[in-house]
Amino acid sequence: MIEAAQEMIGVTQKFCAQMAAVQFSELTKKATDEAKRGVLDGLGCALAQKPSRQALIVRIIWTKVSLHAHLIMSRMRGHVRRDPQLGTLIRDVEAEDWEGDFRVQDRTVEILIDGKEEPNPAVVGRARELVADFDNFELRLNDYLAQAAKD
Fold this sequence. Notes:
By secondary structure, the chain is α+β, with helices and mostly antiparallel strands. It folds into 2 domains: 1-65, no CATH class; 79-151, no CATH class. It is built from 6 helices and 4 strands, in the order ααααββββαα. A 4-stranded antiparallel β-sheet has the order 1-2-3-4. Strand 1 (80-83) and strand 2 form a beta hairpin.
């Protein structure tokens, strides 16, 4: 039984990896139509659940499918704060923190800020300092890591 389950997991992982590698433009019209039908079918099954489960299922689908939908849902629940230096912070209720990111040259740096109902003001202040002088912070961090690797 365990071997069969492990084999199914392996098959599922391979299938998902192949699907993730496909570009939308490579799909046929039939494939996109079937995908849409599958999503609608899944939503229909979700709506057949108890009302309390319907909202949860739809929310999970939306937040997993679309970052934009996640932002909209968070904004509707009052879980979005805009900071002039840190950008958009989105509350993670379960982790009791606020997530955000900012651009540095050609990459995105993710940040986590402690806080239940609101971002912790002291941590926000320190995050602003780090963002304002990120190049220097990154140099100090790289120096520290290089020294730690020698020790």
